[in-house]
Amino acid sequence: MFKMRFGAALAFIAIVVCARLLECTTTCQMANQNDYVERDCPVKLTPVLPQDSTMIYSECVTVHVWMKAEDFSKCPKIEILSKKSKDVIWPTLKQRKRQKCGSENRVKCDKGVAEPHSNTTFAVWELVHDCIKTAANHVVSVSYITTSSSCSVSYTVPDPIPDFDLSVNQSSKSISVTVEPGDKVHARWCYQRTAWNCGAPSPRITIDPSQSRSAVLDIPYLLPCVCVQVYYTRTDSRRHKKCPFQSLTDFRDVWPSSGVTLYESSLNWSSECPASDLNVSASLCWRQNEHLCIPVLNSTLQDKDDGTNLIYDTSAVDKHPQMCVQFSLPGSHNVSCPFQPDMSSWEVYIGPGRQSVFLYLTSHVPAKFSAQLCVLTNSGCTPMGQVHSVIMGGSMTELRINVPLKSFLAKKPCVQVWRSDPALRGRRILCPDYTHNRWGMYAVAALVFVVIVALLGIFIHHLTKNGAAGLLCIQEPVLLVCSSEQSAHVSAVCALASILQGELSAEVHMALWAQTSQAKAGTGTGTGTGVADLGPLPWLYGQWEAVRKAQGRMLIVWSPDARKMYEKWREERANMGKTETKEEDYGKAEVRHENMTEEDLNLNGRRQGKWKKDKAVGKKDYKIREDKDLYTQREPSSVITPVFTAALACLEGALQEGKCQGVALVYFQGLCHSRDIPKAFRGVPRYCLLQDFRGLIQELGGMRRWIKTGKFRWHCWPRLLSKVMSIWLARQLAQRLQTLLPQTHREKMQRLRVTSSVKMMSDKTQSRLKLPQAANLARPGTVQEHEPLHESPW
């Protein structure tokens, strides 16, 4: 039995010794004297970093001890102390006899590579103990002891932490972490609740600097206690912590991250951050509506800090559902209403009185209640007037308090009510409805407003119906020249002429109307000044000159047929200059034209006198004109082409002489395009109807001026009224003209039925189709090539 136990003990000792021999080895050899440095303690500790980066951080510490020959005679002893072990080494020389020193763990020092017969008196031996594996934050201490001296050296194994930088984006509530090159690390955010506890951490993320040195952490709230921890991936590594929001001034995220818990006599406010780090104050307020909580004066609640939460005493607070607690931080606050309806022991409501208000109270317990007027301000409800009190016995009998408003009615005060004995903190604020006394005033004001609007509408309607024509008129004569025998074109020109004469009181001259009057003259009532009497060319020349002298406007209504006739006319005029015979005939025609022009001027004067006389007839004459328009739309005319050709000659002559101020080109949208107008007439103003109809009215001088003391003056109100009327009438006329325009271009116009005398006169006028000398001298190269813009002035 004894032998078995002894054998087991020897086996255990062998295993321990072998394990220690495998773990650490000790050698002692003669060292190179050049490597030896004299020092106070001949001991040096050298750490070696571990190879495994996943285990707990530890280092392998190697012990170096240098000894001289004379030290071996002093029984040198080396003690190595670590957390896990304590080793004692006795170094000795092989040549020396065994001394009476320690008998255990002897280490013999030999010469090593030195010569066998070398002098060892001044030699130095180096003892190396390799190695001592020590975890982070542990200490390795080595003592060197001889009979004459002793010294010691210690080394603490560090616990390394990674270095990193932070970048905060408050708008996205994120933190960017950037680490230095090295081993892999973990990163996470947490709430720093105590000096040693960073709680509620987020899931960690791993950053491998060899792949990417940065990562982004998303945080739910921007709080002063939010910190970031970065540490190596080894087991139980030391955390490196940074808190970027310690100087935060915006505390809006404190409220959604906090909570309120109501107990029987206390209120507990908790937050993710320690309450001691936040300067939170609490006071009572009365919730008037969803967006207004009126502060109650002198109602700050005292708090008790238990380290993480704030506890407020609510045993003496009026627990009405509208009595709330306002928590405040610098620049921010939050309102919480934790009380339930069944917690209040008394009720009150307000009723109207005669220059006073009545308060109706009920209470479950005997108490004294008080009421006082107050005026709402930003800081609360400022009390005013005397305090009215009543004592209730707690029998749930309703009592009434009369609070007079006579002296303070102008300030629209409210009433604050509170339980004064036994006192409860908090005052209920009730505001009377002051609007019911003003419903009659509002009704009268609304009725007056409706009457004024109705009268104004009637006045404007009457003015636009009866006064528009008087405010907007054309005083100068207008000459209209048609350029096509197409029914759509003729109908549009007649409609335009009717509107200018009937609505704007303009003196309109048009060949179709003059031809129809000649038919009337055949009955014995005519004056002999129509187209049939004078011929198309003399009539046109006479009208052109008369309108020009009267400072009127000559309007040539252009069409696609007009461009063809213009090109044909230019070609014929060029061919006429090639033969002398044609030149002589043209000279005779010119002389005849001058004579007929003088005669036409005299006749035109008589016609203008007749027109002024007929104008007094009014609407009767206008109806006759409209009948004529309808007639001209049904039958074709043989005077349109010669009259238009003569107008071309007059227009080119005016361009040559620079006297085309009163001439304008008009074309209808849908019947013609601006590109149909030759480039030679680019210097002549042009208007597209109906688009530029208001601009055409202004061109024709359709604004009446008031004459005062011989000068034209604009008065403020007439000018404004005329402006409004012109806009309204222009829209009405534009709509009417649009309805009068034909809807198709395919309809052919029938020729007019005229008498035989008119046909004979038309045949004669064909031979008179000669051009004046001024027209032959016109040079197209002198005409401006740019078309001026004419837009509506309104």
From TrEMBL:
Biological process (GO), any one: inflammatory response
Location of the Interleukin-17 receptor C/E N-terminal domain: 211-421
Molecular function per GO: interleukin-17 receptor activity
Keyword Transmembrane helix: yes
Keywords: Cell membrane, Glycoprotein, Inflammatory response, Membrane, Receptor, Signal, Transmembrane, Transmembrane helix
GO annotations of cellular component type: plasma membrane
Name of the protein in its database record: Interleukin 17 receptor E
Organism listed in the record: Epinephelus coioides (Orange-spotted grouper)
